[in-house]
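Appendix B. Chain record.
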Amino acid sequence: MKVTTIGAGYVGLTTSCVLADHGHKVICLDVDQVKISKLERGEVPFFEPGLQELLDRVLKKGTLTFTDDRKTAYYHGEIIIIAVGTPPQIDGSPDLRFLKTALTDISEHLSSHKTIVTKSTVPPGTNKWIESELAQKADRKLFDVVSNPEFLKEGTALEDTLNPDRMVAGGNSAEAVARVKELFSFVSAPWFTTSLTGAEMIKYASNVFLAAKISFINEIAAICDAYHVNVEDVARGIGADPRIGPAFLRPGLGYGGSCLPKDLSALIYAAKSKGINPKLLPAAGEVNDSVTKSYVQRLELLLGTLRQKRIAVWGLSFKPDTDDTRYSPALTFIRKIQEKGAEVLAHDPVVKETSEGIISQPDPYSVLTDADALVLATEWSVFKQADWGRVSRMMKGKIVLDCRNVLNTGEVAAAGLDYHAIGRYQREQEAQ
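Structure tokens predicted for this chain:
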């Protein structure tokens, strides 16, 4: 099939590369000329495992091209995939400017039938609005709209695109939904078909449930800490219940990134716009905000004060295997301890510099000299394999605060370091 993808971000570029690798002729459109130039040179503008190799392959095959020329892009695609960003606004509602611009462009180039596939995360009712808007500007027979939300995770975007848990398609045209299924015929996952609004709600509800589950286990971890219970035992015990499941039951510094915080705020806004005052959803966000404060307080308690203390921080991205620092709990933690007078030196395996001006040091050990404490903020695998003897020799203090509950406490303790976490009581005691 001939496909046009609008947006060359995580979703748009990953989807374009995968479709092109399966034989579809794909043009990826983006208004950012600098990004397009990089992609034309074969450079992925962000870090995503395996994506560079896939881009190299499809460019060599000639099945994927990039452009900032709208006319060329829109005339090419029989299927148009909308994968533009919908960032949050101050009131929590998503900013749909990029989607509206794409919609205007599409309406101006509808000379033949197009199946418009929305992958962008949009509020309930948006795809119905897209249908209505296009119908006012173009012949209704020239387009169909399908809501096909993505469920990829940064760091595993390729695997999630190739082997998703499920595929969702919402639409008013059975033929259009069938075309989308044909487009992704290489996917073996089950398909769930629903209405346009139903598909939008599935996406929001999925992400918000995950956010709530993370906040739940973080609150349980705090209670376990007070009662000297190992939260990992509790997580295993409740995760064995098939009604609950073990995924997303690891406590830590909280969730971040471009999806969960945004989608939680957006669903709260959507609910209130219909006169519904949700209670559970805001609580998930409040717990997430409080988690970072708890770790700051724990570090302050361990050191007596943070003023003029040198703190080494491992990790800047919001999760491992990505360079995305949007809403990163690591950066929130750093900002809060800096406000209390701490000096911070940080290292991240792929982040070079953050928008806040934090520069990643060359390697994990380069931040340790004269450090009063080491904080693990993002659970990159390289940090789990650290030479703890070397860490101990380089640091001035002995405190290691594991904000992700992933370090081997025995190895840390054997190096003469003082291991600390929240909710990992038994492991922490063993490390003393």
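Further analysis of this model is presented in Appendix C.
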